[in-house]
Prior knowledge:
Structural class: mainly alpha
Order of helices and strands: HHHHHHHHHHHHHHHHHHHHHHHHH
Shape: elongated
Distance between the termini: 53 Å
Number of helices: 25
Low-confidence stretches: 4-19, 467-474
Helix content: over 70%
Radius of gyration: 37 Å
CATH architecture of the domain at 23-185: Alpha Horseshoe
Strand content: under 5%
CATH topology of the domain at 23-185: Serine Threonine Protein Phosphatase 5, Tetratricopeptide repeat
Number of strands: 0
Amino acid sequence: MVRLLSVFVFLFFSAEIYAQTDLAKKTFPEQCRVIDSLQRHLKTDNSANAPELFQPYIDAAIVSGDDELQCLLEVEKLRALGHTPNYERNALLTIISKSKKQDWKEVLAIAYQSLSGHYIANHQAAEELKYLLLAYDIYKDWDYEYFIHKQEFIYNIAIAYFRADELETANKYFNMALAIPDSFIGASQLNTIALSYTNAKNLDSALYFYDLAYNFAKDHKLYRWQNIIAGNAIGVFIIREQYDTSLALSFKILDIAENNLGKKIQANLLSTIGFLYLKKNDLIKSEQYFDSALLRYRSMKENWYYSEMIAAEKLYRRLGEVKADLGKYKIAYKYTDTAKLIRDSLSIKVSAVKLKEIEKDYARSKLVTAQQLLELEQKNALLQRNLLITIVIVGGLLATLIIGFYRKRKDLLEKEKNVAKYDLKASQDKLAVFTNTIQEKNKLLEGLEKKLTSYESDEKTVEYAETISEMQGSTILTDDDWIDFRKNFDKAHPGYLSRLQKNHPTLSQAELRYIVLAKINLSTKEMASVLGVTAGSVRTTKSRLIKKIGFENEDELKELIDNL
Length: 564
Protein backbone atom coordinates (compact mmCIF):
# COMPACT_ATOMS: atom_id res chain seq x y z
CA MET A 1 0.00 0.00 0.00
CA VAL A 2 2.82 2.39 0.92
CA ARG A 3 4.60 1.59 -2.36
CA LEU A 4 1.42 2.28 -4.36
CA LEU A 5 0.93 5.57 -2.52
CA SER A 6 4.54 6.58 -3.28
CA VAL A 7 4.06 5.80 -6.96
CA PHE A 8 0.85 7.84 -6.99
CA VAL A 9 2.57 10.86 -5.37
CA PHE A 10 5.46 10.62 -7.83
CA LEU A 11 3.13 10.49 -10.82
CA PHE A 12 1.09 13.40 -9.44
CA PHE A 13 4.08 15.68 -9.04
CA SER A 14 5.52 14.58 -12.40
CA ALA A 15 2.23 15.57 -14.01
CA GLU A 16 2.33 18.95 -12.21
CA ILE A 17 5.88 19.69 -13.40
CA TYR A 18 4.98 18.66 -16.95
CA ALA A 19 1.87 20.86 -16.88
CA GLN A 20 3.97 23.87 -15.85
CA THR A 21 6.58 23.33 -18.54
CA ASP A 22 4.26 22.26 -21.39
CA LEU A 23 3.68 25.40 -23.49
CA ALA A 24 2.48 23.53 -26.59
CA LYS A 25 -1.21 24.19 -25.90
CA LYS A 26 -0.73 27.90 -25.17
CA THR A 27 -1.03 30.75 -27.67
CA PHE A 28 2.10 32.55 -28.87
CA PRO A 29 1.52 35.62 -26.60
CA GLU A 30 1.04 33.28 -23.61
CA GLN A 31 4.23 31.42 -24.50
CA CYS A 32 6.09 34.75 -24.74
CA ARG A 33 4.89 35.85 -21.30
CA VAL A 34 6.11 32.61 -19.71
CA ILE A 35 9.47 32.97 -21.49
CA ASP A 36 9.64 36.64 -20.45
CA SER A 37 9.19 35.60 -16.81
CA LEU A 38 12.14 33.19 -17.23
CA GLN A 39 14.26 36.01 -18.69
CA ARG A 40 13.40 38.28 -15.75
CA HIS A 41 14.25 35.50 -13.30
CA LEU A 42 17.69 35.13 -14.92
CA LYS A 43 18.32 38.87 -14.49
CA THR A 44 17.34 38.94 -10.80
CA ASP A 45 18.86 35.62 -9.66
CA ASN A 46 22.62 35.57 -10.22
CA SER A 47 22.78 31.85 -9.38
CA ALA A 48 20.34 30.89 -12.17
CA ASN A 49 21.61 29.91 -15.63
CA ALA A 50 19.76 29.81 -18.94
CA PRO A 51 20.41 26.17 -19.99
CA GLU A 52 19.10 24.70 -16.71
CA LEU A 53 16.09 27.05 -16.62
CA PHE A 54 15.00 26.49 -20.23
CA GLN A 55 15.78 22.77 -20.61
CA PRO A 56 12.60 21.39 -18.92
CA TYR A 57 10.48 23.50 -21.28
CA ILE A 58 12.51 22.36 -24.29
CA ASP A 59 12.14 18.70 -23.22
CA ALA A 60 8.37 19.18 -22.86
CA ALA A 61 8.23 20.68 -26.37
CA ILE A 62 10.14 17.66 -27.73
CA VAL A 63 7.73 15.25 -26.01
CA SER A 64 4.79 17.20 -27.45
CA GLY A 65 6.34 16.99 -30.92
CA ASP A 66 6.12 20.79 -31.32
CA ASP A 67 9.22 21.64 -33.41
CA GLU A 68 8.29 25.32 -33.71
CA LEU A 69 8.03 25.76 -29.94
CA GLN A 70 11.30 23.87 -29.45
CA CYS A 71 13.06 26.26 -31.85
CA LEU A 72 11.49 29.28 -30.14
CA LEU A 73 12.76 28.11 -26.74
CA GLU A 74 16.22 27.36 -28.13
CA VAL A 75 16.44 30.89 -29.58
CA GLU A 76 15.26 32.51 -26.34
CA LYS A 77 17.79 30.43 -24.39
CA LEU A 78 20.61 31.71 -26.63
CA ARG A 79 19.27 35.27 -26.28
CA ALA A 80 19.32 34.89 -22.49
CA LEU A 81 22.99 33.88 -22.50
CA GLY A 82 23.89 37.39 -23.60
CA HIS A 83 26.83 36.27 -25.75
CA THR A 84 27.10 34.42 -29.03
CA PRO A 85 30.32 32.52 -29.74
CA ASN A 86 30.57 30.81 -33.12
CA TYR A 87 28.85 27.56 -32.14
CA GLU A 88 25.82 29.53 -30.88
CA ARG A 89 25.84 31.65 -34.05
CA ASN A 90 25.78 28.46 -36.13
CA ALA A 91 22.86 27.16 -34.05
CA LEU A 92 20.96 30.40 -34.76
CA LEU A 93 21.70 30.14 -38.49
CA THR A 94 20.35 26.58 -38.50
CA ILE A 95 17.15 27.70 -36.75
CA ILE A 96 16.80 30.64 -39.17
CA SER A 97 17.10 28.29 -42.16
CA LYS A 98 14.50 25.90 -40.71
CA SER A 99 12.13 28.77 -39.78
CA LYS A 100 12.25 30.12 -43.34
CA LYS A 101 11.34 26.71 -44.77
CA GLN A 102 8.50 26.21 -42.26
CA ASP A 103 7.36 29.88 -42.41
CA TRP A 104 7.70 30.30 -38.62
CA LYS A 105 7.64 34.11 -38.67
CA GLU A 106 7.72 34.64 -34.87
CA VAL A 107 10.73 32.36 -34.40
CA LEU A 108 12.47 33.93 -37.39
CA ALA A 109 12.03 37.50 -36.06
CA ILE A 110 13.48 36.62 -32.63
CA ALA A 111 16.30 34.58 -34.21
CA TYR A 112 17.31 37.54 -36.41
CA GLN A 113 17.28 39.79 -33.34
CA SER A 114 19.43 37.32 -31.39
CA LEU A 115 21.90 36.95 -34.24
CA SER A 116 22.45 40.73 -34.23
CA GLY A 117 23.95 40.28 -30.75
CA HIS A 118 26.77 38.21 -32.24
CA TYR A 119 27.78 41.12 -34.44
CA ILE A 120 27.55 43.62 -31.56
CA ALA A 121 30.08 41.50 -29.66
CA ASN A 122 32.36 41.43 -32.72
CA HIS A 123 31.99 45.18 -33.44
CA GLN A 124 30.37 44.59 -36.83
CA ALA A 125 27.82 47.41 -36.74
CA ALA A 126 26.60 47.01 -40.35
CA GLU A 127 25.79 43.30 -39.87
CA GLU A 128 24.14 44.04 -36.51
CA LEU A 129 21.85 46.64 -38.08
CA LYS A 130 21.12 44.35 -41.04
CA TYR A 131 19.64 41.61 -38.80
CA LEU A 132 17.84 44.11 -36.56
CA LEU A 133 16.06 45.48 -39.65
CA LEU A 134 15.34 41.98 -41.02
CA ALA A 135 13.58 41.24 -37.73
CA TYR A 136 11.73 44.58 -37.87
CA ASP A 137 10.38 43.85 -41.37
CA ILE A 138 8.67 40.77 -39.90
CA TYR A 139 7.19 42.15 -36.66
CA LYS A 140 6.55 45.84 -37.56
CA ASP A 141 2.82 45.33 -38.23
CA TRP A 142 2.16 43.08 -35.22
CA ASP A 143 0.28 44.46 -32.24
CA TYR A 144 2.45 44.96 -29.14
CA GLU A 145 0.04 42.81 -27.10
CA TYR A 146 0.68 39.93 -29.51
CA PHE A 147 4.44 40.51 -29.75
CA ILE A 148 5.63 41.65 -26.34
CA HIS A 149 9.25 42.16 -27.54
CA LYS A 150 8.21 44.89 -29.99
CA GLN A 151 9.23 47.95 -27.96
CA GLU A 152 12.51 46.43 -26.79
CA PHE A 153 13.47 45.40 -30.34
CA ILE A 154 12.62 48.82 -31.83
CA TYR A 155 14.63 50.51 -29.07
CA ASN A 156 17.63 48.33 -30.02
CA ILE A 157 17.38 49.58 -33.61
CA ALA A 158 17.44 53.15 -32.32
CA ILE A 159 20.56 52.39 -30.24
CA ALA A 160 22.29 50.90 -33.31
CA TYR A 161 21.62 54.07 -35.33
CA PHE A 162 22.67 56.17 -32.32
CA ARG A 163 26.05 54.37 -32.16
CA ALA A 164 26.45 54.98 -35.91
CA ASP A 165 25.83 58.75 -35.40
CA GLU A 166 22.74 58.59 -37.61
CA LEU A 167 20.89 60.65 -35.03
CA GLU A 168 17.82 61.64 -37.04
CA THR A 169 17.01 58.00 -37.80
CA ALA A 170 17.84 57.01 -34.22
CA ASN A 171 15.37 59.57 -32.84
CA LYS A 172 12.71 58.30 -35.27
CA TYR A 173 12.96 54.78 -33.80
CA PHE A 174 13.24 56.12 -30.23
CA ASN A 175 9.91 57.89 -30.70
CA MET A 176 8.37 54.75 -32.23
CA ALA A 177 9.44 52.78 -29.14
CA LEU A 178 8.08 55.43 -26.78
CA ALA A 179 4.71 55.42 -28.57
CA ILE A 180 4.09 51.81 -27.48
CA PRO A 181 2.09 51.52 -24.22
CA ASP A 182 3.30 49.54 -21.17
CA SER A 183 6.79 50.91 -21.63
CA PHE A 184 9.83 49.03 -20.37
CA ILE A 185 11.86 52.20 -20.99
CA GLY A 186 13.34 53.62 -17.79
CA ALA A 187 16.01 56.06 -16.63
CA SER A 188 18.85 54.48 -18.63
CA GLN A 189 16.88 54.32 -21.88
CA LEU A 190 15.47 57.86 -21.52
CA ASN A 191 18.95 59.18 -20.79
CA THR A 192 20.24 57.55 -23.99
CA ILE A 193 17.42 59.15 -26.00
CA ALA A 194 18.28 62.54 -24.48
CA LEU A 195 21.97 62.03 -25.36
CA SER A 196 20.93 61.31 -28.94
CA TYR A 197 19.09 64.63 -29.13
CA THR A 198 22.04 66.39 -27.47
CA ASN A 199 24.44 65.08 -30.10
CA ALA A 200 21.99 66.13 -32.80
CA LYS A 201 22.02 69.70 -31.31
CA ASN A 202 18.29 69.43 -30.65
CA LEU A 203 18.67 70.79 -27.14
CA ASP A 204 15.00 71.43 -26.33
CA SER A 205 14.12 67.80 -26.99
CA ALA A 206 17.24 66.70 -25.10
CA LEU A 207 16.22 68.67 -21.99
CA TYR A 208 12.68 67.28 -22.24
CA PHE A 209 13.96 63.69 -22.13
CA TYR A 210 16.55 64.50 -19.43
CA ASP A 211 13.65 65.79 -17.34
CA LEU A 212 11.65 62.58 -17.96
CA ALA A 213 14.69 60.45 -17.12
CA TYR A 214 15.48 62.45 -13.96
CA ASN A 215 11.91 62.19 -12.66
CA PHE A 216 11.87 58.44 -13.36
CA ALA A 217 15.14 58.01 -11.43
CA LYS A 218 13.80 60.19 -8.62
CA ASP A 219 10.53 58.24 -8.33
CA HIS A 220 12.47 54.95 -8.15
CA LYS A 221 15.20 56.39 -5.85
CA LEU A 222 17.93 55.65 -8.39
CA TYR A 223 20.38 58.15 -6.92
CA ARG A 224 23.31 57.36 -9.21
CA TRP A 225 21.13 57.76 -12.27
CA GLN A 226 19.81 61.06 -10.87
CA ASN A 227 23.42 62.24 -10.69
CA ILE A 228 24.31 61.00 -14.20
CA ILE A 229 21.21 62.49 -15.82
CA ALA A 230 21.53 65.78 -13.97
CA GLY A 231 25.19 66.01 -15.03
CA ASN A 232 24.20 65.54 -18.69
CA ALA A 233 21.46 68.16 -18.37
CA ILE A 234 23.90 70.60 -16.73
CA GLY A 235 26.14 70.14 -19.77
CA VAL A 236 23.26 71.31 -22.02
CA PHE A 237 22.58 74.34 -19.81
CA ILE A 238 26.29 75.25 -19.96
CA ILE A 239 26.17 75.07 -23.79
CA ARG A 240 23.29 77.55 -23.58
CA GLU A 241 25.22 79.65 -21.03
CA GLN A 242 22.38 79.26 -18.53
CA TYR A 243 24.72 79.19 -15.57
CA ASP A 244 22.14 80.06 -12.90
CA THR A 245 19.95 77.15 -13.99
CA SER A 246 23.03 74.90 -14.01
CA LEU A 247 23.95 76.03 -10.47
CA ALA A 248 20.43 75.38 -9.17
CA LEU A 249 20.45 71.84 -10.59
CA SER A 250 23.99 71.24 -9.29
CA PHE A 251 23.07 72.23 -5.73
CA LYS A 252 19.95 70.08 -5.97
CA ILE A 253 21.91 66.98 -6.91
CA LEU A 254 24.70 67.84 -4.42
CA ASP A 255 22.20 67.46 -1.54
CA ILE A 256 21.32 63.99 -2.83
CA ALA A 257 25.00 63.09 -3.26
CA GLU A 258 25.92 64.19 0.27
CA ASN A 259 23.40 61.72 1.73
CA ASN A 260 23.43 58.83 -0.76
CA LEU A 261 26.53 58.83 -2.98
CA GLY A 262 30.29 58.52 -2.54
CA LYS A 263 33.02 61.13 -2.12
CA LYS A 264 34.12 60.94 -5.75
CA ILE A 265 30.68 62.02 -7.02
CA GLN A 266 30.51 64.72 -4.35
CA ALA A 267 33.95 66.04 -5.38
CA ASN A 268 32.92 66.07 -9.06
CA LEU A 269 29.81 68.12 -8.23
CA LEU A 270 31.77 70.59 -6.09
CA SER A 271 34.24 71.01 -8.95
CA THR A 272 31.34 71.63 -11.39
CA ILE A 273 29.91 74.29 -9.09
CA GLY A 274 33.33 75.93 -8.87
CA PHE A 275 33.54 75.97 -12.69
CA LEU A 276 30.04 77.52 -12.96
CA TYR A 277 30.97 80.33 -10.56
CA LEU A 278 34.13 80.85 -12.61
CA LYS A 279 31.96 81.27 -15.73
CA LYS A 280 29.94 83.88 -13.76
CA ASN A 281 33.21 85.64 -12.83
CA ASP A 282 32.55 85.09 -9.12
CA LEU A 283 36.17 84.22 -8.23
CA ILE A 284 35.65 84.04 -4.46
CA LYS A 285 32.91 81.40 -4.64
CA SER A 286 34.70 79.63 -7.48
CA GLU A 287 37.83 79.32 -5.31
CA GLN A 288 35.70 78.17 -2.34
CA TYR A 289 34.07 75.29 -4.23
CA PHE A 290 37.27 74.28 -6.08
CA ASP A 291 39.06 74.10 -2.70
CA SER A 292 36.17 72.04 -1.27
CA ALA A 293 36.37 69.69 -4.25
CA LEU A 294 40.13 69.26 -3.76
CA LEU A 295 39.66 68.48 -0.05
CA ARG A 296 36.95 65.94 -0.87
CA TYR A 297 39.19 64.23 -3.44
CA ARG A 298 42.07 64.14 -0.97
CA SER A 299 39.83 62.55 1.69
CA MET A 300 39.21 59.59 -0.65
CA LYS A 301 42.76 58.21 -0.44
CA GLU A 302 46.39 59.25 -0.63
CA ASN A 303 47.65 59.95 -4.16
CA TRP A 304 44.05 60.01 -5.34
CA TYR A 305 45.07 61.71 -8.60
CA TYR A 306 46.62 58.48 -9.92
CA SER A 307 43.16 56.95 -10.33
CA GLU A 308 41.39 60.24 -11.26
CA MET A 309 43.97 61.81 -13.59
CA ILE A 310 41.55 63.56 -15.95
CA ALA A 311 39.49 65.11 -13.14
CA ALA A 312 42.67 66.01 -11.22
CA GLU A 313 44.31 67.76 -14.21
CA LYS A 314 41.16 69.80 -14.86
CA LEU A 315 40.72 70.75 -11.19
CA TYR A 316 44.36 71.78 -10.58
CA ARG A 317 44.46 73.76 -13.83
CA ARG A 318 41.26 75.70 -13.10
CA LEU A 319 42.16 76.20 -9.45
CA GLY A 320 45.55 77.57 -10.55
CA GLU A 321 43.79 80.04 -12.87
CA VAL A 322 41.47 81.22 -10.10
CA LYS A 323 44.33 81.60 -7.56
CA ALA A 324 46.33 83.60 -10.10
CA ASP A 325 43.36 85.91 -10.81
CA LEU A 326 43.06 86.48 -7.05
CA GLY A 327 46.76 87.35 -6.83
CA LYS A 328 47.80 84.19 -4.99
CA TYR A 329 50.68 83.52 -7.35
CA LYS A 330 52.72 81.10 -5.24
CA ILE A 331 49.91 78.60 -4.75
CA ALA A 332 48.72 79.26 -8.32
CA TYR A 333 52.15 78.28 -9.68
CA LYS A 334 52.12 75.12 -7.56
CA TYR A 335 48.69 74.04 -8.82
CA THR A 336 49.51 74.90 -12.45
CA ASP A 337 52.76 72.92 -12.23
CA THR A 338 50.88 69.96 -10.72
CA ALA A 339 48.34 70.12 -13.57
CA LYS A 340 51.18 70.03 -16.11
CA LEU A 341 52.78 66.99 -14.44
CA ILE A 342 49.45 65.16 -14.45
CA ARG A 343 48.87 66.14 -18.09
CA ASP A 344 52.28 64.74 -19.07
CA SER A 345 51.55 61.53 -17.13
CA LEU A 346 48.19 61.30 -18.83
CA SER A 347 49.85 61.57 -22.26
CA ILE A 348 52.22 58.75 -21.33
CA LYS A 349 49.30 56.67 -20.08
CA VAL A 350 47.33 57.27 -23.28
CA SER A 351 50.38 56.31 -25.33
CA ALA A 352 50.76 53.13 -23.28
CA VAL A 353 47.11 52.25 -23.88
CA LYS A 354 47.54 52.81 -27.63
CA LEU A 355 50.68 50.66 -27.57
CA LYS A 356 48.75 47.88 -25.82
CA GLU A 357 46.02 48.10 -28.45
CA ILE A 358 48.66 47.82 -31.19
CA GLU A 359 50.17 44.82 -29.41
CA LYS A 360 46.72 43.23 -29.12
CA ASP A 361 46.06 43.78 -32.84
CA TYR A 362 49.46 42.25 -33.62
CA ALA A 363 48.73 39.27 -31.37
CA ARG A 364 45.34 38.80 -33.03
CA SER A 365 46.99 38.95 -36.45
CA LYS A 366 49.57 36.36 -35.40
CA LEU A 367 46.80 34.11 -34.07
CA VAL A 368 44.81 34.35 -37.31
CA THR A 369 47.95 33.63 -39.34
CA ALA A 370 48.81 30.63 -37.13
CA GLN A 371 45.27 29.29 -37.51
CA GLN A 372 45.45 29.66 -41.29
CA LEU A 373 48.80 27.87 -41.39
CA LEU A 374 47.41 25.08 -39.22
CA GLU A 375 44.42 24.67 -41.54
CA LEU A 376 46.75 24.50 -44.55
CA GLU A 377 48.90 21.87 -42.82
CA GLN A 378 45.80 19.83 -41.96
CA LYS A 379 44.56 20.01 -45.56
CA ASN A 380 47.99 19.00 -46.82
CA ALA A 381 48.15 16.06 -44.40
CA LEU A 382 44.66 14.97 -45.47
CA LEU A 383 45.65 15.20 -49.14
CA GLN A 384 48.78 13.11 -48.52
CA ARG A 385 46.79 10.52 -46.58
CA ASN A 386 44.15 10.25 -49.32
CA LEU A 387 46.88 9.93 -51.95
CA LEU A 388 48.57 7.16 -49.95
CA ILE A 389 45.26 5.33 -49.48
CA THR A 390 44.58 5.61 -53.23
CA ILE A 391 48.01 4.19 -54.05
CA VAL A 392 47.51 1.29 -51.61
CA ILE A 393 44.04 0.52 -52.99
CA VAL A 394 45.18 0.65 -56.63
CA GLY A 395 48.26 -1.46 -55.82
CA GLY A 396 46.11 -3.98 -53.99
CA LEU A 397 43.68 -4.24 -56.88
CA LEU A 398 46.51 -4.73 -59.38
CA ALA A 399 48.07 -7.41 -57.20
CA THR A 400 44.71 -9.21 -56.93
CA LEU A 401 44.21 -9.14 -60.69
CA ILE A 402 47.73 -10.42 -61.36
CA ILE A 403 47.43 -13.24 -58.80
CA GLY A 404 44.03 -14.18 -60.21
CA PHE A 405 45.39 -14.21 -63.74
CA TYR A 406 48.39 -16.39 -62.93
CA ARG A 407 46.45 -18.83 -60.75
CA LYS A 408 43.70 -19.20 -63.37
CA ARG A 409 40.97 -18.66 -60.82
CA LYS A 410 38.70 -16.71 -63.06
CA ASP A 411 36.04 -19.44 -63.24
CA LEU A 412 36.18 -20.11 -59.53
CA LEU A 413 35.89 -16.41 -58.71
CA GLU A 414 32.91 -16.11 -61.05
CA LYS A 415 31.22 -19.01 -59.31
CA GLU A 416 31.85 -17.47 -55.89
CA LYS A 417 30.49 -14.20 -57.20
CA ASN A 418 27.26 -15.91 -58.32
CA VAL A 419 26.90 -17.56 -54.91
CA ALA A 420 27.39 -14.16 -53.24
CA LYS A 421 24.73 -12.65 -55.48
CA TYR A 422 22.35 -15.46 -54.57
CA ASP A 423 22.99 -14.93 -50.85
CA LEU A 424 22.53 -11.20 -51.24
CA LYS A 425 19.23 -11.66 -53.08
CA ALA A 426 18.02 -14.12 -50.45
CA SER A 427 18.91 -11.73 -47.65
CA GLN A 428 17.17 -8.84 -49.39
CA ASP A 429 14.07 -11.00 -49.86
CA LYS A 430 14.07 -11.92 -46.17
CA LEU A 431 14.35 -8.25 -45.21
CA ALA A 432 11.50 -7.37 -47.55
CA VAL A 433 9.31 -10.12 -46.00
CA PHE A 434 10.24 -8.87 -42.54
CA THR A 435 9.35 -5.26 -43.45
CA ASN A 436 6.03 -6.29 -45.00
CA THR A 437 5.19 -8.32 -41.87
CA ILE A 438 5.74 -5.27 -39.67
CA GLN A 439 3.65 -3.06 -41.93
CA GLU A 440 0.81 -5.60 -42.03
CA LYS A 441 0.85 -5.86 -38.24
CA ASN A 442 0.60 -2.06 -37.93
CA LYS A 443 -2.31 -2.02 -40.36
CA LEU A 444 -3.97 -4.70 -38.22
CA LEU A 445 -3.44 -2.64 -35.07
CA GLU A 446 -4.85 0.46 -36.72
CA GLY A 447 -7.87 -1.50 -37.87
CA LEU A 448 -8.47 -2.83 -34.37
CA GLU A 449 -8.20 0.67 -32.95
CA LYS A 450 -10.82 1.93 -35.43
CA LYS A 451 -13.10 -0.98 -34.53
CA LEU A 452 -12.61 -0.22 -30.86
CA THR A 453 -13.94 3.32 -31.23
CA SER A 454 -17.00 2.06 -33.17
CA TYR A 455 -18.21 -0.15 -30.31
CA GLU A 456 -20.57 1.35 -27.73
CA SER A 457 -20.72 -1.73 -25.50
CA ASP A 458 -18.41 -1.49 -22.47
CA GLU A 459 -17.72 -5.25 -22.61
CA LYS A 460 -16.57 -5.13 -26.23
CA THR A 461 -14.47 -2.04 -25.52
CA VAL A 462 -12.66 -3.82 -22.68
CA GLU A 463 -12.20 -6.97 -24.78
CA TYR A 464 -10.65 -5.10 -27.74
CA ALA A 465 -8.59 -2.86 -25.45
CA GLU A 466 -7.04 -5.96 -23.84
CA THR A 467 -6.34 -7.45 -27.28
CA ILE A 468 -4.59 -4.28 -28.50
CA SER A 469 -2.66 -3.97 -25.24
CA GLU A 470 -1.34 -7.55 -25.59
CA MET A 471 -0.30 -6.98 -29.22
CA GLN A 472 1.35 -3.63 -28.47
CA GLY A 473 3.18 -5.12 -25.49
CA SER A 474 4.57 -8.02 -27.49
CA THR A 475 8.10 -7.98 -28.89
CA ILE A 476 8.40 -9.23 -32.43
CA LEU A 477 12.20 -9.48 -32.29
CA THR A 478 13.46 -11.80 -29.60
CA ASP A 479 17.22 -12.01 -29.04
CA ASP A 480 17.40 -14.98 -31.42
CA ASP A 481 15.31 -13.11 -34.01
CA TRP A 482 17.61 -10.13 -33.68
CA ILE A 483 20.70 -12.27 -34.25
CA ASP A 484 19.12 -13.81 -37.37
CA PHE A 485 18.07 -10.38 -38.56
CA ARG A 486 21.61 -8.99 -38.19
CA LYS A 487 22.99 -11.88 -40.23
CA ASN A 488 20.54 -11.12 -43.04
CA PHE A 489 21.22 -7.40 -42.76
CA ASP A 490 24.99 -7.96 -43.00
CA LYS A 491 24.52 -9.93 -46.18
CA ALA A 492 22.19 -7.30 -47.67
CA HIS A 493 24.41 -4.42 -46.62
CA PRO A 494 27.95 -5.84 -46.36
CA GLY A 495 30.20 -4.08 -43.90
CA TYR A 496 27.53 -1.51 -42.90
CA LEU A 497 27.43 -2.41 -39.19
CA SER A 498 31.19 -2.77 -38.91
CA ARG A 499 31.71 0.67 -40.50
CA LEU A 500 29.08 2.14 -38.22
CA GLN A 501 30.67 0.72 -35.06
CA LYS A 502 34.15 1.69 -36.21
CA ASN A 503 33.13 5.30 -36.94
CA HIS A 504 30.92 5.62 -33.85
CA PRO A 505 32.17 3.13 -31.20
CA THR A 506 30.19 4.77 -28.35
CA LEU A 507 26.74 3.93 -29.78
CA SER A 508 24.50 1.88 -27.48
CA GLN A 509 22.63 -1.26 -28.59
CA ALA A 510 19.37 0.73 -28.71
CA GLU A 511 20.99 3.36 -30.96
CA LEU A 512 22.48 0.67 -33.25
CA ARG A 513 19.08 -0.96 -33.58
CA TYR A 514 17.47 2.39 -34.40
CA ILE A 515 19.98 3.04 -37.22
CA VAL A 516 19.59 -0.47 -38.67
CA LEU A 517 15.77 -0.22 -38.67
CA ALA A 518 15.94 3.30 -40.15
CA LYS A 519 18.21 1.92 -42.91
CA ILE A 520 15.42 -0.41 -44.05
CA ASN A 521 13.00 2.55 -43.99
CA LEU A 522 10.78 1.58 -41.04
CA SER A 523 8.63 4.39 -39.61
CA THR A 524 8.79 5.41 -35.95
CA LYS A 525 5.60 3.49 -35.22
CA GLU A 526 6.92 0.39 -36.98
CA MET A 527 10.17 0.58 -35.05
CA ALA A 528 8.21 0.81 -31.80
CA SER A 529 6.33 -2.38 -32.72
CA VAL A 530 9.56 -4.19 -33.59
CA LEU A 531 11.36 -3.22 -30.40
CA GLY A 532 8.35 -3.55 -28.08
CA VAL A 533 8.57 0.08 -26.89
CA THR A 534 6.56 3.26 -27.32
CA ALA A 535 6.93 5.64 -30.24
CA GLY A 536 8.06 8.29 -27.73
CA SER A 537 10.96 6.07 -26.66
CA VAL A 538 12.02 5.71 -30.31
CA ARG A 539 11.91 9.52 -30.75
CA THR A 540 13.94 9.97 -27.53
CA THR A 541 16.56 7.49 -28.83
CA LYS A 542 16.73 9.44 -32.10
CA SER A 543 17.10 12.80 -30.24
CA ARG A 544 19.91 11.43 -28.04
CA LEU A 545 21.60 9.90 -31.10
CA ILE A 546 21.61 13.27 -32.90
CA LYS A 547 23.17 14.99 -29.87
CA LYS A 548 25.73 12.18 -29.25
CA ILE A 549 27.05 12.23 -32.83
CA GLY A 550 27.06 16.04 -32.80
CA PHE A 551 24.54 16.67 -35.57
CA GLU A 552 22.41 19.83 -35.80
CA ASN A 553 19.21 18.21 -37.12
CA GLU A 554 17.46 15.03 -38.36
CA ASP A 555 18.50 15.60 -41.98
CA GLU A 556 22.17 15.10 -41.10
CA LEU A 557 21.34 11.82 -39.27
CA LYS A 558 19.32 10.58 -42.26
CA GLU A 559 22.23 11.40 -44.59
CA LEU A 560 24.59 9.36 -42.37
CA ILE A 561 22.20 6.38 -42.31
CA ASP A 562 21.61 6.46 -46.09
CA ASN A 563 25.21 7.02 -47.19
CA LEU A 564 27.37 5.13 -44.65
